[in-house]
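Hi there,

I know you've been waiting on this one. I reran it after we fixed the sequence typo, so this is the corrected version. Both the input and the resulting structure follow.
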Amino acid sequence: MTNYGAIPTSSHPSPPVDLEYISHVRHRIKSGLATRRPWRSMFDLESMSLPHGFFDAISRTKTNLVYFRANYAIAVLFMLFASLLYHPTSLLVLAILVVFWIFLYFLRDEPLVVFGHQVDDRTVMICLSVLTIGMLLFTHATGNILGSLLTALVLVMIHAAVRRSDNLYSDEEAAAVTEASGLTSYPSS
């Protein structure tokens, strides 16, 4: 490398490390995981009780599936991963598909736009689920995959029906309720 004047010249310029991109990815990971609810809240034993009837179970299930959807997706993917430990090809395919899940479902800051149409989270989740199941079925681990998915589905539905949904609210709703009830505390000066 030679320096004549103020303009450095080099025959092989080294690619700059894009720290802004790394920082953006780190921020997207944090904000993407923010949609996941705390596991402690999900498995709070005081919030577990048998539903009073069929319609109560349906209501709880609907509410919990929406509220804990990211947690349920992580749990199902983990159970699928655990069932494929003895199938390396299937595990590699699952690892690639998890990258798709991370970037297309968990880490998006803005809605996904395909061919000029906005795609909602539910559609993305359904498409990724079908793609994941389809690709894994091509790896000849059908028994393990179907068994783990059936087990995961049963466990998710049981949890969604047994977890009371009367104390679930978003952070904005909690702040509004707390502020309206006068439960906020201010430091004394």
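Quick highlight: Residues 142-162 form the longest helix (21 residues).

Best,
R. S.
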